[in-house]
Amino acid sequence: MRGLTQFIADIRASRVRELEEKRINKEMAHIRKKFKGKRIRKCRGIYADRALDGGLDGYQKKKYLSKIIFTYILGYKVDIGHMEAVNLISSPKYSEKQIGYLAVTLLMHENSDFLRLVVNSIRKDLDENNEINNCLALHAIANVGGKEMAEALAPDVHRLLISPTSRSFVKKKAALTLLRLYRKHPEVFPAEEWALRIISIMDDDDLGVVVSVTSLVMALAQDHLDSYKVSCQKAIDRLHKIVIDKEYSPEYIYYKVPTPWLQVKLLRLLQYYPPITDPAMRATIDRVLQAILSHNPSDSAKNVQHNNAINAVLFEAISLAIHHDTQSPLVATAAGLLAKFIVSRETNGIFTRASEETSNHYYPISAR
């Protein structure tokens, strides 16, 4: 877009603020003129500007909206382009749809009246068998996240998450979108009704999907302990596969530590619930904890990232061992590890972190 490139070059060439503002005001006036021919109409009880295309094609709308977005990013207040953004997200062309979604995300807040006009377009993109459009829609929902949008579109996002035909990267985004909406508007979620379908995805072959879904399960489990209790079995099975069976792909090894973020999340999830009493489950998690606690701090590499990753998993394992049984041999092993940290040359922050983790358990009071 040559016009956008020139506009950005002019702004960067402005030596003082006054010249920058003058150039922006001139451009905004030009864009308003191009968007002229608007009339006021009543839509669902609100008044909104409806752009009469006025001969503008999709490319021109995309170019002008891009200039508006750039102006907004610079920190200037913009009050035009909302309806053009609404129109562009319905475009069949990806480049135009992308700019439309970007404008909706940046220019509209969660209580904007214009959002009512985009819900149907977003739902259409969620329903399409097109992963790129699915992701654009999910990004917009997660970033705007209003209550009305959550009520209208959460079921569609959930459907994408549990669909066997959804690609892994779509499932990851769907899980995190649901997490975002749940944190803002938990009252609109049928969390108990969705429990079993969501938990089942913790068995997914893609560890990226498992990380995203586990984050969602952790949030839901804190408010619905009984409904999400079966996630404990899933967490133990996955930990066994990672730590004991070494079932993970190379891309999920972070500085020689297999998927440390997932290990930490799973270990923490188990602490939301009372100590495990089932003999088989307890034996499995004890084997996992023993394998993690067998790590010797003196064997750590000098690489900071490796140490941070291995210690994060180690401290969470220590916390879970104490949570299960303060008199177990595992806790005795943990005490020995903590003693080594005390005399270590590393900063005292490591031991401080360990003491914080082992003195604070994560399962809700209602579960005690």
Automatic annotation (TrEMBL):
Keywords: Membrane, Protein transport, Transport. It comes from the Eukaryota. Residues 20-348 form the Clathrin/coatomer adaptor adaptin-like N-terminal domain. InterPro entries: Adaptor_Complx_Large_Subunit, ARM-like, ARM-type_fold, Clathrin/coatomer_adapt-like_N. GO terms for cellular component: endomembrane system; membrane coat. GO terms for biological process: intracellular protein transport; vesicle-mediated transport. It is found in: Endomembrane system. Its main location: membrane. Transmembrane segments: none annotated. This is Rhizoctonia solani AG1-IB WGS project CAOJ00000000 data, isolate 7/3/14, contig 01529. It comes from Thanatephorus cucumeris (strain AG1-IB / isolate 7/3/14).
